[in-house]
Amino acid sequence: FLKEQHSLVYKGAILIFKNGTFLQLPDIDCSRTPPFLVLLVTSSPGQNEARMAVRQTWGKQRLVTGKRIMAYFLLGTTENQNEQTSVTAESQKYGDIIQKDFLDVYYNLTLKTMMGIEWVHKFCPQSRFVMKTDTDVFVNIFYLTELLLRKNRTTRLFTGFLKMNELPIRRISSKWYVGKDEYPGSTYPPFCSGTGYVFSTDVASQIYNISESVPFIKLEDVFIGLCLAKLKINLEELHSEQTFFPNRLEFSLCRFKKIVTCHYVKSHEQLLYWYALEKLGDEECPDI
Ligand SMILES: *[C@@H]1O[C@H](CO)[C@@H](O)[C@H](O)[C@H]1NC(C)=O
Ligand SMILES: *[C@@H]1O[C@H](CO)[C@@H](O)[C@H](O)[C@H]1NC(C)=O
Ligand SMILES: *[C@@H]1O[C@H](CO)[C@@H](O)[C@H](O)[C@H]1NC(C)=O
Questions:
Q1: 266 within 8 A of 136, measured Cβ to Cβ
Q2: Each residue's pLDDT tens digit in the chain (288 positions)?
Q3: Does the global pTM surpass 0.85?
Q4: Which is the closest atom of ligand 3 to the Cα of 209?
Q5: First-residue to last-residue Cα distance in the chain
Q6: Which of 118, 207, 209, 232 to mutate to test the pocket of ligand 3 (most atoms within 8 A of CB)?
Q7: Distance CA 90, CA 273 (A)
Q8: Considering only CA atoms, which residue is closest to atom 14 of ligand 3?
Q9: Does the CA dihedral 237-241-243-249 come out positive or negative?
Q10: Ligand 1 atom nearest to CA at 101
Q11: Of the candidates 69, 16, 14, the residue with the CA atom closest to the CA atom of residue 39
């Protein structure tokens, strides 16, 4: 009974959520200027400094080998009126915020990710690839673009840091605790770490379409994994070497030239790493 009740409540939640309107929409007409890669960056209302760091670095609108890269921030709402007002002002100034009416808390991350996927499906199906990542992740968009072009795939691609055999954490004190009522299975389907995953844009529409019939789980990366399993889309490595790091990496220019993501990066580090990569990137590195 509990299980049924849980999935009924959340089935309702996803449906209502899908029908909700966008409070903030970015300034872009994808049919006129289709991006090659859309970066969807989860962020919370109070993290404006982290958003500024991303805007100044890997999230700045630019062409990489002629391919357009755009970054947008995914935000929920806050009960703090001042913060809410400043998000609206920030959206008007930078035109890069996507927001719907749901409370911006960790346990609503699945709704936040689904909002980004809905936006791509409805407003930017002309893009080629989508990446979902976070403001405390460093993204080497140069290497990512190179690898996507080299991969030469335009449909049913899903890649990132693959987690093929994760088990639900049943320890109640854990941040990632999931009860048996929420997820009764003993293993999760394959999924990619939520710190950074990349997919071809057709996958966004397919996930959006199937999401209502997938049991809700608050872990957004697992939820996407459940959708992919239902769609029979397999996860793939982008490169034979590891390039997505869900952990922190010590900075070295030669190392960072050959990674796509690493985690736990502070705003001032975003600026340092980016400056090194963009300005000193031609420095010789040993072949690895
Ligand atoms: C998620 O957002 C909804 C809509 O604002 C809210 O009712 C709900 O309490 C939020 N979830 C959590 C766990 O706070
Ligand atoms: C990319 O894939 C297409 C179709 O699968 C193929 O025709 C083309 O030769 C490939 N290009 C490269 C550079 O491998
Ligand atoms: C959406 O899902 C329905 C069945 O659930 C399927 O018939 C339809 O082809 C799907 N559409 C897309 C765009 O995937």
A1: yes
A2: 344 445 555 665 666 677 789 999 999 999 999 999 999 999 999 999 999 999 999 999 999 999 999 999 999 999 999 999 999 999 999 999 999 999 999 989 999 999 999 999 999 999 999 999 999 999 999 999 999 999 999 999 999 999 999 999 999 999 889 999 889 999 999 999 999 999 999 999 999 999 988 988 999 999 999 999 999 999 999 999 999 999 999 999 999 999 999 999 999 999 999 999 998 777 778 765
A3: yes
A4: 1
A5: 55
A6: 209
A7: 25
A8: 206
A9: positive
A10: 5
A11: 69
- Ligand at shortest distance from the CA of 201: 3
Q: Answer yes or no: is the C-beta of 105 below 6 A from any ligand 1 atom.
A: yes
Question: Which of 262, 285, 288 shows the shortest CA–CA distance to 133?
Answer: 262
Q: How far is residue 217's CA from residue 110's CA, in Å, rounded to a whole number?
A: 7
In sequence order, the 6+-apart residues with CB closer than 8 A to the CB of 146 are 65
Does ligand 1 have an atom closer than 6 angstroms to the CB of 253? no
Residues in the chain: 288
